Amino acid sequence: MRMTEDELNAHLAKHNSKRNNAVEPKKTQKGNRALGRLKQGVMNQTEAKYATHLEQLKVLGEISWYSFEAWKFRLANKTFYSPDFIVMKSTGELEAHEVKGYWEDDARVKIKVAAQMHPLQFIAVMWNKNNDCWDFEYF
Predict the structure, then answer these.
(1) 49, pLDDT greater than 90
(2) Looking at the whole model, is its pTM more than 0.70?
C-alpha cells in the first residue's frame, strides 16, 4: 500500500502526538535511589567525593597510590566482586575500599566473602551527613 505525502504526514503526526502524550516516569523523590548502574569506570557523586578525600591523603603522604575499579576478585563461579578503590598506604599495605551510600544485601555478603578469601584489608566507607565526615567499617 502506498501513501501520499499528506497521508504520511497525517500518520506521523498522529503517532508523534501519542508519543508526546505518554506519561513520563516521575523524577526520583527524596529517599528514592536511582535505578541501574553507571558505566564501568564512571564514579557516582559519593565515589567522586571520596576520590577527593583520597587525593588529600595522598598530598599529606598518608597514602602513596589509589585507583578506581582497578581490581576484580573472583568469589565463585560467575561471581565477582570489584571494590571501588584499591589504596596503597605509605607503608606499602594495600586496602580495598568500598564506598556506599546504601547497602544492598548481596554487596555486604560479597565484601565479607572477599575479606575471608583474600589477604587484604577490606573497608566500607560511608559519608556521615550528621558529623560531616567519613565512617569506616572494617571487614
Answers:
(1) yes
(2) yes
